Amino acid sequence: MFNRTEQKRGQHEGLLGLTDSLLSPRENKPKLKMVGEDGNAFFIIGRAQRAWKKAGLPQDEWEQIRDKMTGGDYNDLIRTAMTYFDAS
Question: Distance between CA 12 and CA 56 in Å, rounded?
Fold first, then answer.
């Protein structure tokens, strides 16, 4: 039997696995200006969320992308932003 921590961890790992297999980059990615902007991780996530909403894309997809952006280190965040956004 799982304790609460193990169960949460298992659910989180499952979500990341599900995210990787179901969410693929779009052909028409939302534009995200990164060059010449604040490089703080929270700033990038905020700009990405605004770009996603401005493009009128589904909230559940944004939540999966946000989870990927925050699931690793700074390089993972940048890599995820470059994958799902037209980052310049």
Answer: 26
